[in-house]
Amino acid sequence: MFETNKGINHIALVCRDMKQTVDFYTGVLGMPLVKTVQLPDGGQHFFFDCGGGASVAFFWWKDAPAMAPGIASVKNFPYDSKTAVGSMNHIAFNMDEADLEAALDKLESAGVPHTHAVVNHDDSHAGVARDVHEGVFVRSVYFTDPNGIMMEFAAFTRKFTPEDVRHEPATMDA
């Protein structure tokens, strides 16, 4: 038997411009470029260290299919964030809560599209709260990279308990 709960090794995404992607992930997000691969088909595969032993990797091909917002990526967060089955909606990077405001400032100064406030997620009907209260379980900053990929800096504000699992999973048969 093997253990599958050792965390994520890497997530692999596709970019439209590897140079822009390298500049963004190393310069804006401060993720070191740790491995580059030139693919036999002319493409590239680059890995960035995102902490905790995990990486964010990108493929690039000159002839990759075009972006498909609203299908393979978020169209307009938070108003239209539904994506297709099998797509990646967004990736969230763990961050200390105390660093969220500084992250907003850094994204702003770099001209990166982002939420202009920290989002407080709670269990209310709206799912978000204007102010931090004991029901807020994660605080987030959302932004997009140069490829239109939605990203999130996320800080859990409390440990989850069995009471946090209280919804039945939905099914198409219902």
Written description of the protein model:
The protein is an alpha+beta fold and 174 residues long. It has two domains: 1-63, 2,3-Dihydroxybiphenyl 1,2-Dioxygenase, domain 1 (Roll); 74-165, Roll (2,3-Dihydroxybiphenyl 1,2-Dioxygenase, domain 1). The protein is built from two helices and nine strands; from the N terminus they run E-H-E-E-E-E-H-E-E-E-E. Strands 5-9-8-6-7 form a five-stranded mixed sheet, covered by helices on one side. A four-stranded mixed sheet has the order 1-4-3-2, with helices on one face. Strand 2 and strand 3 form a beta hairpin.
Strand arrangement, largest sheet? Answer: 5-9-8-6-7
CATH architecture of the largest domain: Roll
Q: How many strands? A: 9
Summing up helix and strand content along with how strands pair, one would put the structural category as: alpha+beta
Instruction: Indicate the percent of residues in helices.
Output: 10-25%
Summed up, the domain count is 2
- What is the level 1 CATH name of the largest domain? Alpha Beta
Tally of separate helices: 2
Average pLDDT across residues? 90
- Proportion of residues in β-strands: 25-35%
The best one-word shape is: globular
From the N-terminal CA to the C-terminal CA, the straight-line distance is: 36 Å
Low-confidence stretches: none
InterPro entries: Glyas_Bleomycin-R_OHBP_Dase, Glyas_Fos-R_dOase_dom, GlyoxalaseI/FosfomycinResist, VOC_core
Domain VOC: 7-156
Protein name: VOC family protein
Pfam families: Glyoxalase (PF00903)
